[in-house]
Amino acid sequence: MLNINAPAKLNLYLKVLSKRSDGYHEIKTLFERIDLCDTITVKLTDKNHVIRCNDPRVPTDKQGLIGRTVARFVEAAGYGSYFDINISKKIPVAAGLGGGSSDAAAVLKGLNEITEKPLKKEKLIEIGRELGADLPFFINDYSFAYGKGRGDEIERGETSIEIAHILVNPPFEIHTGDIYSKVSAFSLTNTKGIDKMFNAFLKENDINAIAENICNDLQPIVLQEFSLLQKVFVELKKAGAKGTLLSGSGPAIFGIFDKDVIKKAKKYLKTVFPLKEQWEVYDVYTY
Q: Are 34 and 285 contacting, i.e. CB atoms less than 8 angstroms apart?
């Protein structure tokens, strides 16, 4: 039996460049893995694949992402056995944190591990790319990585930096496709030099410069639809955030903090966004 961590991600910048012929958008992004993790357990079983999850919103049938991941692995590896997969969720669902993609990437790696690695990493990435744009990032196991294309062309971000965040997730979900469908030609941006700029910040371990320059082209669209989220940005700043940003297509919002204020800030934010109203407040770090 294998236990695998499936970490969430944040996007430190997300630039939308153009609409592609395959229906996706061409983007540039900087991913950061964080230590908010789901736990995946994989074991071999005698008959039929079994997929379980402690969150009923996660599909466990053949048509769901994990079901399709298992099918593609079996097809590619030519493996005749069956798998028992259990997903213990901590990453909020449909929050812009990549939880579903991370789970699928962890399952893919876990199945390969438990069957004595019939597939090379390049093949896993190829399968991952078919299943979802964020999977190649999670398969690569990088703490920071630049994403191009659909976000599936990955290049490692060289750094030893560890960033402290507080993450606030509201009591509703947002589906990525809904937000991207509202991207218009007016919101497409010029990204000249953004990769080089962030590359320098990472190499210099310059958290302040990162915090001042984080940006997300989807944020204005999401705030127009969900004006309630404006309050999260205000309160994160009030709690001491150096920079604040929507992650991915949201609705989770994060702040970058100095480590010595994070406990006090989290305590304050939990009073403003209480669990009894189904808000979630996490302190998280680079994974």
A: yes
Match 């669209």 to its residue by tokens.
Answer: 221
pLDDT tens for 134-167 read 999 999 999 999 999 888 999 999 999 999 999 9
Give every residue of the chain whose pLDDT is below 50, as ranges.
none
- What is the domain range of residue 91? 2-156
Q: Which of 50, 52, 5, 11 is nearest to 28 (CA)?
A: 11
Q: Vertex 159, ends 158 and 160: CA angle to 5°?
A: 145
Final residue in a domain of this structure, among 156, 178, 194:
156
Is residue 123 among the annotated active site residues?
A: no
For position 98, which CATH number holds?
3.30.230.10
Which CATH number characterizes residue 205's domain?
Answer: 3.30.70.890
**Whether residue 217 lies in the annotated active site:** no
Asked which of 88, 122, 156 is the last residue of a domain, the reply is 156
- Out of 38, 134, 152, 195, pick the active-site residue: 134
CA-nearest of 32, 11, 89 to 253 is 11
Is the sign of the CA dihedral 225, 134, 16, 215 positive or negative? positive
Number of domains the chain contains: 2
Do 97 and 177 fall within a single domain? no
Q: Which of 9, 28, 89, 109 is catalytic?
A: 9
Structure tokens at 265: 């800030």
Residues 231 and 266 in one domain: yes
pLDDT digits (tens, 9 = 90+) for 47-75: 899 999 999 999 999 999 999 999 999 99
Q: Given the DSSP bridges, would you call strands 253-257 and 243-246 parallel, antiparallel or unpaired?
A: antiparallel
> Are 94 and 208 within one domain?
no
